[in-house]
Amino acid sequence: MPTETELDCAIRAGTNTAYWFGDDASQLQNYAWYEANSESRTHAVGTCPNKEVDCKNPWGLYDAHGNVWQWVSDSFSITNKVMLGGSYNYNENALRADYRHSNDKR
């Protein structure tokens, strides 16, 4: 399992923007499954909301934003692990590269 820093680096793929494709949240509809377009369900890895774009980031990572949260080895507390990337049922803010979430690891 990667550390938070390692996964953050992989999600950003060398960028310093809110999303690997830039700062415009309206573009998420092309690259990520999230609350606005997921129909409240996960989707197969590598499928893109917009079939006309390549939705993997510059380092070849699919679902860098959205679809399912990504666990990392770092913790918020003894029982809560850090998660990055957002999910199919979260809004565009939770899909930002700098957004951290936690959940009980049990």
Structure description:
This protein has a three-stranded antiparallel sheet with strand order 1-2-3. Strand 1 (70-75) and strand 2 form a beta hairpin. Helix content is 12%, strand content 14%. The protein is of the alpha+beta class. The longest helix is centred in the first third of the chain and has 9 residues, at 4-12. The chain contains two helices and three strands; from the N terminus they run H-H-E-E-E.
Write a concise keyword list for the protein shown above.
3 strands, alpha+beta, 2 helices, three-stranded antiparallel beta sheet, 106 residues
List the helices and strands and how they pair.
Layout: H1 4-12, H2 28-31, E1 70-75, E2 80-84, E3 101-104
Antiparallel strand pairs: 1-2, 2-3
What about the largest sheet? 3 strands, antiparallel
Shape: globular
Distance between the termini: 16 Å
Structural class, from helix and strand content? Answer: alpha+beta
Order of helices and strands: HHEEE
How would you write the strand order of the largest sheet?
A: 1-2-3
Count of helical segments?
Answer: 2
Helix content bin: 10-25%
Contiguous uncertain segments of 5+ residues = none
Oligomer: single chain
Q: What is the C-alpha radius of gyration, as a whole number of Å?
A: 13 Å
Overall mean confidence score, pLDDT: 94
- Estimated share of beta-strand residues: 5-15%
Total DSSP E strands: 3
